[in-house]
Amino acid sequence: MQKLSEQNFVKGESIIKFTENLRTSGKLKMITEHDGMRRKERHISSFMQNQKKNRYQHIVLYNEGAIILKVTKKDAKDDDYIHATKIKGNFGSYILAQSPKRATINSWLRMIWQFNVTIIICLIPLISEDKCAKYFEKEEGKKFNRQFF
């Protein structure tokens, strides 16, 4: 089965509407509109190339603002991806991330380490690994062991 291009999912106006707008609004308006849209263009190539690492396929990660992890394994081509975005707020910078999957725990921990995250707020109940893989120990003083990254 052939994979559809991302462009197939972009809605556009019909050629009839386009030519009518061009005829009535003039070429300058169309050029200005196109330039404005081009500046706002958002890409999702990293998201599309890392489908197995995304917990929720319907929550798109745009390339702009996406967290890029420092590569730690020389042979890992996709080792810099995590479904997370850095945003700036009135009181500092924040990272919004999907809860980790079992296969992405090391990337999750690397993100916390590399970006010196000191507070983690989980917005989902930690009742099953279907929603969030375990990334901490519940018992105080007990170590959470993972492989080195």
Automatic annotation (TrEMBL):
<dbReference type="Pfam" id="PF00102">
    <property type="entry name" value="Y_phosphatase"/>
</dbReference>
<protein>
    <recommendedName>
        <fullName>Tyrosine-protein phosphatase domain-containing protein</fullName>
    </recommendedName>
</protein>
<dbReference type="GO" id="GO:0004725">
    <property type="term" value="F:protein tyrosine phosphatase activity"/>
</dbReference>
<dbReference type="InterPro" id="IPR029021">
    <property type="entry name" value="Prot-tyrosine_phosphatase-like"/>
</dbReference>
<feature type="domain" description="Tyrosine-protein phosphatase">
    <location>
        <begin position="24"/>
        <end position="149"/>
    </location>
</feature>
<dbReference type="InterPro" id="IPR000242">
    <property type="entry name" value="PTP_cat"/>
</dbReference>
<dbReference type="InterPro" id="IPR052782">
    <property type="entry name" value="Oocyte-zygote_transition_reg"/>
</dbReference>
